[in-house]
Amino acid sequence: MVMDLDMILRSVQREVEHASKIFPPFHNAHEGYAVLLEEVDELWDAVKLNQHRHPERDKEILHEAIHVAAMAVRLIMDCYRREGEL
Fold first, then answer.
1. What gap in Å lies between CA 29 and CA 44, rounded to an integer?
2. Residue 1: CA count within 13 A, CB half-sphere
3. How far apart are the first and last CA of the chain?
4. Are 76 and 25 in contact (CB under 8 A)?
């Protein structure tokens, strides 16, 4: 599956919106980092399991990478946007 930048950003935005509906904002950057690290660990697990490029595993890597990007956006939104740093 080839995804262009617009498709990727829309996927990340949907994930940010979904996560924002079911989870409260991060209390601080420390919490945001912990959640982001958990997502990176899940991405790494998916990458390690896909050394031979299986299509189903590729989908899992894509899914986890979108989660990583979404949690990075949440960290910015929840911890820094309200401080006027953006």
1. 22
2. 14
3. 33
4. no
Q: Is residue 16 within a helix (H) or strand (E), and if so which, with residue range? A: helix 5-22
Quick: pLDDT tens for 6-53: 999 999 999 999 999 999 999 999 999 999 999 999 999 999 998 777
Burial 7-44 (b: 16+ CB within 10 A, else e): eeeebbeebbeeeeeeeeebeeeeebeebbeebbebbe
Number of H helices, E strands in the chain: 3, 0
Stated pTM of the model: 0.87
Cα(36)–Cα(30) distance, rounded to whole angstroms? 10
Helix %, strand %, coil % of the chain (to 5): 75, 0, 25
